[in-house]
Design goal:
The complex is a heterodimer of chains A (about 400) and B (about 300).
Chain A (H helix, E strand, L loop, with lengths): L1 H20 L1 H36 L5 E5 L6 H6 L2 E3 L3 H10 L4 E5 L9 E4 L8 H19 L2 H8 L9 E2 L2 E2 L3 H34 L3 H5 L4 H34 L17 H28 L3 H16 L5 H6 L4 H8 L4 H11 L4 H29 L9 H6 L7
Parallel strand pairs in A: 1-2, 1-3
Antiparallel strand pairs in A: 3-4, 5-6
Chain B lengths: L9 E10 L2 E11 L4 E6 L5 H8 L7 E6 L12 E4 L11 H11 L4 H14 L15 H13 L5 E5 L7 H16 L3 E5 L3 H7 L2 E6 L2 E7 H7 L3 E7 L9 E7 L2 E6 L5 H10 L4 E8 L2 H17 L1
Parallel strand pairs in B: 3-7, 3-8, 5-6, 6-7
Antiparallel strand pairs in B: 1-2, 1-4, 8-9, 10-12, 10-13, 11-12
Helix pairs in contact in B: 2-3
Classes of the chains: A mainly alpha (about 400), B alpha/beta (about 300).
Chain lengths: ~400, ~300
């Protein structure tokens, strides 16, 4: 037992170190945060400019003429903004055309049926927006003055916040705040599989392609080797996620306003024990199933190139449940949803989705968790078996049955 | 892995190995005793590597007993084993020292000990400057040296070498033989698969000769030589060798020949026949038949049958 633990630690350290030391890994891992930093820097610069320009437009001071058939526009406000009333629209338009006037606003008798016409001297695409901004602000300010109530104005313009609360079993339901946390397990599942699946596939192929199998099998229990590889890959994935998230986190903490990142009220998130535990178990099970399958493929296939032919369809299985996304949420009893819920390669995603949206009842959850656990362990055992008795088949595709009946193994 | 004085370190009994409908090894039995150097001989495809793989648990035997140190081999016994497989390879994209330390750790050495041993070994084999190089940047011969280092770094009690000289030039072959002799002197048990018969004659205490998965000869080198004709006569001559019922011409090349006496023909009778036939004998030396000749004799039959 002590030797197995020692070897497990040795394998984890070796696999983890050599993976993160690879130049390709460093490039792939750092490329995304570097790209994010560049994008954020550009956004920062752009948003600063945009904010300044928007402020400048809103507060732009220029002289204009206006006509108001509606009677809404307050003359004092218009004058304060630099406006002069006119009763001759044609002359006003002509003045704008020949440059003697900067702008002319024509407010119709009924703004709900006719548009407000804005004429202005061309100042470039972006700056031209100031004419409409000022015409709009003048109209809104005048209307508010007529109403005489900021509350009514807010109600009319939709500037009112709504807080919804629903109840389930006599208690306040979590709503969207309860959906997001369990769905995070789905996000983690996708990220880990996308980042790690290729590494998983290649990690066992490497022993085969490099003819290291015999040295390994006479030194190390294959279960220890594969367990060590899986743990090290999980650590690698964790490191990648942290590296990816670091710039996002820093940007959110320090430059949220400048980068126009949406404000998240984390206090609305509800971490219900049931869905959270179910999500964690489904994630673990799903990870085990897919890892086992990838290791098994690595043991069967002679090269990474040939393994790719199976790898593609396998990865597609992770995305197929999204074709039935609306059914997963609205009609979980649909046959296709039921099949996807229990078929081992689609079950992790489907069950995680349903768990997030609250359509996976406890009995179904228990069945899927147990099923995936059993299937995952069996597949991992099969993967170890295939590696044990199959990876010796250097350069040859392996028959799974062959490893059991000992046929088709190369005689030397 | 240690076994009692009387108990063989490696014990194979009634071993049979089938691949599908094909029986590759049939009723093979032999022992290897502690401290001896054992030659495992046979042509390509005779079942040597299969036997070693089954012994080390890489293949599952169809039938029979295959024991190392009195029990079925487990990877946990690997710390006392040095195995140089026929199919060689290490983690090619990793650095030499990293790979050596990794295998040293798996074989039970501390990190410091594995590193220290590796550096000393690399110095000895002239690869000290390659410690930080990637394995795939090394020549094939250099990679072989690293593989050999990984094999012996745990000072194994049992050293199994499957065609150890494959890919080595004469200089490195000498180095390899020196290393094997060192381990032999240190009391290690060595099993060696090789086609280099002169090495077998020089190093091995006992041998087994395998043909089509069946043992054709087993015992000390002298026993096997005796079984396959015992004494031969090496002659140098100027004339023409006569045809005779007293001997077979085993080899004849440029005035040098090796004659195998038939039906116990004595040294005197053979020499007299040669002299009387006017063969122009310049020297006549009794010697034991070489393993090389035995090998050719055994597998020559196979070729003759195949051609026939």
């Amino acid at each position: 037992m002590a030797l197995a633990q020692h070897n497990l630690g040795t394998v984890i350290a070796f696999e983890f170190t050599r993976t993160i030391k690879k130049r390709g890994f460093a490039i792939a891992t750092l490329a995304i945060p570097v790209l994010l930093i560049v994008v954020f820097a550009l956004l920062y610069a752009s948003n600063t400019t945009t904010k300044n320009s928007a402020d400048a437009q809103r507060n732009a001071q220029f002289s204009f003429t206006y006509s108001d058939a509606s009677g809404i526009v307050a003359p004092a406000g218009a004058q304060a903004a630099g406006g002069t009333p006119t009763t001759d629209p044609e002359s006003a338009i002509e003045a704008v055309k020949n440059g003697s006037s900067e702008a002319y606003f024509e407010y119709p008798a009924d703004p709900t049926k006719e548009p407000v016409k804005v004429y202005g001297a061309d100042k470039g695409m972006f700056e031209n927006g100031k004419y409409e901004a000022v015409a709009r602000q003048l109209l809104e300010a005048s209307a508010q003055q007529h109403i005489g109530s900021p509350q009514l104005t807010a109600a009319l313009t939709g500037a009112v916040k709504f807080n919804s609360e629903t109840f389930k079993d006599g208690k306040a339901a979590a709503g969207v705040g309860g959906v997001i946390p369990p769905l995070l397990f789905l996000v983690i599942f996708y990220i880990s599989m996308i980042l790690l699946s290729n590494l998983m596939l290649n990690s066992t192929l490497e022993e085969k392609e490099n003819r290291v199998t015999e040295m390994i099998l006479t030194t190390l229990n294959p279960t220890t080797l594969i367990t060590g590889k899986i743990i090290s890959l999980f650590m690698v994935g964790l490191l990648q996620v942290l590296v990816f998230l670091a710039p996002v986190g820093l940007a959110y903490l320090f430059f949220r306003d400048r980068l126009a990142l949406p404000e998240m009220d984390l206090s609305t998130l509800v971490f219900e024990p049931g869905p959270m535990i179910t999500g964690a178990l489904l994630l673990l099970d799903g990870f085990t199933v897919f890892t086992g399958v990838l290791v098994a493929i690595g043991a069967i296939m002679p090269t990474a190139k040939e393994a790719g032919t199976i790898f593609g369809p396998l990865m597609a299985m992770m995305f197929i449940p999204f074709y039935t996304f609306s059914l997963v949420i609205s009609n979980p009893k649909a046959l296709i949803v039921q099949i996807f819920t229990y078929f081992p390669l689609t079950a992790p995603v489907t069950a995680l989705l349903r768990n997030g949206f609250g359509t996976l009842n406890p009995v179904e959850a228990a069945i899927v968790i147990v099923e995936l656990l059993v299937v995952g362990i069996l597949i991992l055992r099969l993967a170890v078996h295939l590696f044990r008795y199959g990876s010796i088949e250097y350069g040859r595709k392996l028959s799974i049955a062959g490893t059991f009946r000992r046929s088709e193994l190369a005689a030397k | 892995m240690s076994s009692g004085a009387a108990e063989p370190l490696v014990h194979i009994q009634d071993f049979r190995m089938d691949f599908g409908d094909t029986t590759v090894i049939r009723d093979l039995s032999f022992d290897v005793h502690v401290g001896e150097t054992f030659g495992f001989l046979g042509s390509n495809g005779s079942g040597k590597t299969t036997t070693l793989r089954a012994l080390l648990g890489i293949y599952r035997p169809t039938a029979g007993i295959l024991h190392v140190g009195g029990k079925v081999f487990e990877p946990s016994d690997g710390s006392r084993l040095g195995y140089l497989p026929e199919e060689r390879g290490l983690y090619k994209k990793e650095h030499v020292l990293d790979v050596m330390v990794y295998f040293g750790r798996l074989k039970g050495l501390s990190k410091t000990a594995a590193r220290s041993w590796s550096e000393t070994y690399l110095e000895r084999v002239g690869l000290a400057d390659k410690a930080k190089a990637r394995l795939d940047k090394l020549s094939s011969g250099q990679q072989q040296k690293i593989q050999l280092g990984v094999t012996i770094m745990n000072n194994p009690e049992l050293l199994i070498l499957d065609e150890p000289t494959k890919g080595f030039d004469p200089v490195n072959r000498r180095l390899l033989m020196d290393i094997i002799e060192e381990h032999k002197r240190a009391g290690a048990t060595v099993i060696m698969v090789t086609h280099q018969m002169e090495e077998v004659e020089r190093l091995c205490d006992r041998v087994i000769l395998l043909k089509d998965g069946v043992s054709r000869a087993y015992g000390t080198v002298e026993d096997v030589q005796e079984e396959f004709g015992g004494t031969v006569y090496r002659v140098t001559y100027d004339g023409v060798l006569p045809l005779s019922s007293l001997f077979d011409v085993v080899s004849d090349d440029d005035g040098r020949a090796e004659l195998a006496p038939l039906q116990g023909a004595s040294e005197e009778k053979v020499l007299r026949e040669l002299v009387e036939a006017g063969a122009g004998i310049r020297s006549f030396t009794p010697a034991r038949i070489s393993l090389d000749e035995i090998f050719i004799k055994v597998y020559g039959e196979q070729h003759e049958l195949a051609e026939g």
